[in-house]
Amino acid sequence: MTASLTLGPVLFNWPVDRWRDFYARIADEAPVDTVIVGEIVCFKRAPFFAEAMGEVIERLAAAGKTVWLASPILVGSERERSAMRDLVRSDATLPDGGLPEGGLVEANDMGALALLAGRPHAVGPTINVYNEATLGWMAGRGAVAVSLPAELPAATVAVLAKAGRELGIETEVQVWGRAPLAISARCYHARAHGLHKDGCQFVCGNDPDGMPVTTMDGQPFLTVNGTQTMSHGCLCLAAEMPALVAMGVDRFRLSPQAMDMVRVAEAFRAVLDGRRDGAEVAAELGGLIDAPLVNGFYHDTAGALRVA
Amino acid sequence: MDNFELICPAGTPAALRAAVDAGADAVYLGFRDETNARNFPGLNFTRQDVADAVDYAHARRVEVYVAINTYPQAGNLGPWRKAVDDAARLKVDAVILADPGLLDYAAKRHPDLRLHLSVQASAANVEAIRLYREAFGVRRVVLPRVLTVPEIARLNAEIDIETEVFVFGGLCPMAEGRCSLSSYATGLSPNKQGVCSPANHVRYEQRGGALASTLGGFTINVFGEGEQAGYPTLCKGRFVAGEGPAYLFEEPTSLNAMDLLPELKAAGVRALKIEGRQRGKAYIAAVVRAYREALETFAAGRPVPHIDLQAMVEGGTQTTGAYTRAWR
Fold it and tell me: Of A78, A174, B12, B283, whose CA is between 20 and 30 Å from B54?
């Protein structure tokens, strides 16, 4: 089994034209194997992307990418539930599924996981997989790949990667991009602008890389992306890639930021292929994003820290 | 009409007796380790404490639930499985679990043990709840604090499993069990270690007339002279996003849904939960007594009384949280 690169879904509210162009360039230039698409943070944003979804999926598939669809992180309301039910009918294992061959649905909520039982599916990083017993239970229900939560330390990743190999389920670790830290029914973007979620005016669209949150001392701390809270620091495990490969991790996820993601993908591909040194790549990529690189979760300390 | 069940917290044997004596229908507690989501120093129960608690509660027809609601550590499942085994052996009335792997273990190893789904599993929709019922035989779900009352009503119309909702105490503005904020600042998380914004990472600094509180080196709040300082729980801090400092996520406030009892009853909710295993016995006694009085009055068909719990709430403010749509 050779390790592969995954591009996670765009988590920010980009204008649909930018979103479409982003994926066109990914299709043409980015050396990633799997591209996961879908609006998973806020159901209010989803209609904007729906019009371009078919075109984006076709373009990516024509370029040889495996395309997966991601389900929403938080599903509470009837509308969210209905959207989730529609989405799990899309995968390529169904006769009229809509996704090209190899296409799967990645569940980001236990409700979607329930609906996907009995057919091949992926499990996203916002579903809690913390141990081998849960991994085994999911494998038994048809999961073929699990993207591990960002807060897991190396020792846990090692156990899960090993168990994954035994169970025939691929494990994935996020190696680039701000870490998703929390999800809420409340929209903090709207709240910060004195608005209510129902009348949010889509203010999250003003911040293509999320809204910076600093402490009262002016120290950068977090990033608000609508109902989602993310890290300020950009998670980067480029230097840790050889160790992750040695553990048996199969997939490496790059989470899109508003930056040159083709360059990011090329750099991580070079590390994966043994052509470049991970620490050197981290140093280069660190200069491309207005945030410190962090890897504390992996090193079993505060996620905001960088351990050399 | 059956009355609501009142589910009350206990962090110590004294708090448990206070809750039982004040009118709890059930008391929930945790073992003294990382298997429960209130793994705080000086809190929680030894196995013998639980045995004594079960004796005390059962003699007064009160149930005991054990929360084993953190996510077991990979390669080290033993402590969590032993907690489930011991809870069953000690004849508790239910265990409150979140992790699918642990639920699977409990369902297979102890088929007669009643399983409740912890709020830490954040099951917020019909499909998710049905999954836990069908896969593990879960009998009750504690709903995450992300749903409005009408959403809870619609949910209950479609599931054949009891629902329990929080009515009083601290509240997470984030979906529970899906939050790594504490972990990001301190390395310690609710899911892994059963702690949030842990005290050993908290510092208070005097800055002239102001008092700053920090967590993991990040300033969570700065209180001016005359302002009452609070504990720096990360999501209740003041931060800057665009404009000046504000309580970006949530004010220091407490949930109090007493006024919503008729709506929660109409929504088909079975049990009401009070948060606060970290609270002292006087607090527990006062809150449980107030809720018992409200429930009895409501069950008798009289209007829900306005009982003053102002002295019991964090920051001196109360909210109905996500139960009303305006909160979002």
Answer: B283
